Amino acid sequence: xxxxxxxxxxxxxxxxxxxxxxxxxxxxxxxxxxxxxxxxxxxxxxxxxxxxxxxxxxxxxxxxxxxxxxxxxxxxxxxxxxxxxxxxxxxxxxxxxxxxxxxxxxxxxxxxxxxxxxxxxxxxxxxxxxxxxxxxxxxxxxxxxxxxxxxxxxxxxxxxxxxxxxxxxxxxxxxxxxxxxxxxxxxxxxxxxxxxxxxxxxxxxxxxxxxxxxxxxxxxxxxxxxxxxxxxxxxxxxxxxxxxxxxxxxxxxxxxxxxxxxxxxxxxxxxxxxxxxxxxxxxxxxxxxxxxxxxxxxxxxxxxxxxxxxxxxxxxxxxxxxxxxxxxxxxxxxxxxxxxxxxxxxxxxxxxxxxxxxxxxxxxxxxxxxxxxxxxxxxxxxxxxxxxxxxxxxxxxxxxxxxxxxxxxxxxxx
Length: 414
Ligand code: ADP
Ligand code: ASP
Ligand code: MG
Description:
Bound molecules: adenosine-5'-diphosphate, aspartic acid, magnesium ion
Order of helices and strands: EHEHHHHHEHEEEHEEHHEEEHEEHEHEE
Strand order of the largest sheet: 3-4-2-1-7-9-10-8
Keywords: Amino-acid biosynthesis, ATP-binding, Kinase, Nucleotide-binding, Transferase
GO biological process, one term: homoserine biosynthetic process
EC number: 2.7.2.4
Oligomer: single chain
Distance between the termini: 50 Å
Protein name: Aspartokinase
GO molecular function: aspartate kinase activity; ATP binding
Largest sheet: 8 strands, mixed
């Protein structure tokens, strides 16, 4: 029975992290497929590099490149005793340098994927060579050759026809496999990515393709809690969740699981374990087919730094079906996803993440609507709410908008 493990950036942020992951792998029976993210915050650093490169700020781009390389060399030095010891890394570093020494194309998102993908390529090459040197035989797979997508760069859609077949071919047999999260490739072998934080989704795609029984994603938290412990120190563990509940949590923005991860797993009844890489033997959270959630406690999800906009048609027309279609098409055009929407006779309101296009969105909206907006608001969702939980979370806060159903209460807070 094949297992799939996924390790995020936090688990491999330094040499000790890599050694810790290695000790988890050593304890696990094979065949085992491990999916690994970029080390630490390297995806952010590579985003900076991409921006400078695309804006043709040569010097800035070179500086960002040097920082990324130095970060990895430090880890390599600690692991191998010599910063130049990892051949696969040296080759990749040369090709990245080659890319940024040339002119960028005019396609922002294409260049983004070409550059940001180096984070996962670097981390997996380093870890694969480290394992080999440490006597842990493994096979490095370039996921871009098997996880096939369309060419919607930065948010690519999986080709579900080709991908499972290619994955089964690449990961057949016994042993230990190592591959990259987050990345894909078009049928022309151009690099794509699945959206930020997409490595959980990669693990699910591979598990689905391999008919795995379970996937484990190893995190810096003991499992799924009823709130983000960084924001709510007294958050409590949830031992077991249904796929439905987990999908809802991810949909409302709980960072712990990427929203696309659950569907492929649910479709084949594959169990998802969320466990702590800091405490390997603790049970963590199990997500499977069941009714609801094991703990009857309110679950809090906070999306910070949101835009909140309210618009009203200038000509006093009602917000009816046709108007709604028009409004939603405008948001769609700018690829802005609404995290909350609400309408009344003459108003339509929405809460969303600023993806860099919201200024242009506002301009277009202003052509036909009166527009009012707030920046930097918080969107709080409480599932399984109680009157006390609402009171506790909203006391002393200005509520700009709210939406309460039987199970879920949502508030836009200043
Ligand atoms: P990865 O290392 O896989 O990228 P993330 O950092 O994306 O992991 O996700 C783990 C983080 O998610 C935790 O550090 C925690 O702060 C946050 N988080 C948000 N909501 C929850 C929740 N309900 N339960 C557990 N962790 C949560
Ligand atoms: N490295 C990517 C990111 O930080 C993918 C991931 O970690 O899931 O977004
Ligand atoms: Mg992450």
